[in-house]
Every structure is written in structure tokens, then in C-alpha cells.
Amino acid sequence: MTSEKPGPSDADGARRRARFGTLPERVRVADMVEERPVTVPDSARDAYNSDEWLVRTCL
């Protein structure tokens, strides 16, 4: 008595090769990163003048 496992049919093998036969295209690292500002720029808050701070603190 020999116990042979039934092998996959040709249609199953072709379907498997079509789905898993090749690797997907490589994704570049630059395409995986999205850069955007965390907050909306606020002109009133960003109107910092380093010279003004120096005059107020040191004089």
C-alpha cells in the first residue's frame, strides 16, 4: 500500500503562480514618507525678532 497525496491540479498551480509568482514592485523610501506642517503657520506668533529679545533681556 502506497499512500500518495493528491497533487495540486494544473489550474491551481497556474493560479498560485499568477498571484505569488513574482514580487511586487519595489517602493522607494521617498515615496513612503509624507511631509506636511504640523500646524498652520501663524504670522502673529512667528513674528519673533531675535534682536528685540536681546535688547529686552540684556539692557
Note down, in words, how this protein is organized.
Helices cover 41% and strands 0% of the residues. The chain contains three helices and no strands. The mean pLDDT is 78. It has one domain. The chain is mainly alpha-helical and 59 residues long. The N and C termini lie far apart (102 Å). The radius of gyration is 32 Å and the shape is rod-shaped. Residues 1-21 are annotated as: Disordered.
Provide a short characterization of the protein structure.
This protein is an all-alpha fold and 59 residues long. It is built from three helices and no strands. The chain is rod-shaped, with a radius of gyration of 32 Å.
Mean pLDDT: 78
Provide the gyration radius in Å: 32 Å
Helix content: 40-55%
Instruction: Report strand %.
Output: under 5%
Beginning-to-end CA distance, first to last residue: 102 Å
Q: What is the general shape?
A: rod-shaped
List the helices and strands in order.
HHH
